[in-house]
Structure formats: C-alpha cells, structure tokens
Amino acid sequence: MTEKKVLIRLDHIAKSFGSYQALKDINISVHEGEILGFLGPSGSGKTTTIKIITGQLKPTSGEAFVLGKKSTEINELVYEQIGIVSDNSGIYEKLTVYDNLRYFAKILAVKKERIDELLKIVGLYEHKDKPAEKLSKGQGQRLVLARAVLHNPKVLFLDEPTSGLDPTTAMAIHQLLISLKENGMAIFLTTHNMEEATKLCDHVALLNEGNIVEFGTPKEICLRYNEDKQFRLVLNNQEEITLPANAATAEQIKEWIVNDTFETIHTCEPTLEHVFVKVTGKELR
C-alpha cells in the first residue's frame, strides 16, 4: 500500500499574544484523504492554529508546513491549492449564487462547467439565479463551502462549518466532506461539536487552553476512557436496564437472547464530549 503524503504538519508550534499563551507546543500531521478534527471550546486556540498554518499569523516558535511549504513562506501556487471556510468567509450578497462562483472560477481558472456540477452537489442548483442576500443561513454556508472547493484544492480548512445549521443541511455538508476526503483531500476541521467530529473524523485532537490533551481516532479515545464497562438494554416491555460487564451479566444476556426477551443492547463507552469534560473539567459551549 502506498504511504499517504503528509499535507499539513505542525512542529512544536506555540503562539503568544503579549503575556497570553494561546498555543503551547502543538505537534500534529494531516495526510491526504484524511479528516482531522481539531476540537475544543471557543477560545481554545483552534482558529489561531488555522491562521498560523495558512500564513495569516506567525508562530511565536515552531514551524508549520502546508503542501511541503513553510507557512511563513506560502506563495500564490500553494494558495491556489488551499480552500478555507471560516465564520468570516464572505460572499457577494448582490450577486446571484451562480455569479458568485463564476467570479471566483475566473480568478482560479476553473471551467464554467464545474459551477453547475458543484451547485447540484451542494443542493443550490435550483437557487442559482437567486441573489446571495436572499439565501437562508444554511444555503449561504453551502455557497461558501462550494466556493472553497470550486478549484478542487488539495487541502481544505473548515472553521465551525455547520455551526447553527439545521440537521438536514448539516448532514448534506457532512456527505460532501466525506466525498471530498475519499477523493484524496486533506481536511482540517475545527469544531466544538463532538458528535459531528465522531461521525466525520479519522483522527481528533482535543485542545484545551492551548494544549493537545488527547489524540487518536474517536473510537480509540472513547475506549481509552471506558473505565466503567457496562451494557444498556431495552427489554420487550420497554424497561431500560444497565448492567456491569461481568460473568453474571453474560449469563443473564444469554438467557434473554434464548427467550427473545430484549429489543436492543448497547455498550456504554463514553462519548467524545464525556471524555473532553473528564480530561479538562470543562463543559463545551
């Protein structure tokens, strides 16, 4: 199997603003065809990290690389292979949906056929002639995402891409991101939505007060903190029962299986959010 290329790398990144240390010795890599979740509450350093990787901020110490280039030396050729979606990614409100993308397609030398193709993918084709200012928040976010991937970038940075969106719109964006990943794109996703990260991410880094406090696949991290091993069952009479993982429980479950006595059974490992609260002592907001 061919080893996947590292498209983003952070080596001992630290960033201070005066006496405030926003990031402390961050080390991380993102490969092609991978979604990395950089997770933490507001103010934990997620957006600062994206700005450092993309050359908008200089680190106080350490080095960041994107597509093999130091973030402090990124040139136009590298920027042409990057897409960014952030909370201040604007669109031209007086232009139509189509013309917003046509404008950027011209700048990025993208064929016009790509516009209709992408509008269909993000569910905005029927709104192509609508002024952007008339779009709902969810539609506007999909337009921003379409603009960010218009040129098929190798690396995509997403800063809270589904914040405030309805579940249907969020699911559509999730499906698009998975498709992009499967086509080799490296996606750096920041969010405080642990459920979203569990669904999408190959690896996650839990960030707290500028430190990475946990790293691994979502499943690995949850199992690492599965200290009270239990089973949760719903019986045929809708009674819910939680039992410890031991020999007596195994015998009881075996009996229920033989007698077809229960509807569902689940293990009770903690969620990413539970792990985060345990590790940091903080609730996500």
Automatic annotation (TrEMBL):
Gene Ontology molecular function terms on file: ATP binding; ATP hydrolysis activity
Domain of life where this protein originates: Bacteria
UniProt xrefs under Pfam families: ABC_tran
UniProt key word Transmembrane helix: no
Positions of the ABC transporter domain: 8-234
Keyword terms of this UniProt record: ATP-binding, Nucleotide-binding, Transport
Protein name per Swiss-Prot or TrEMBL: ABC-2 type transport system ATP-binding protein
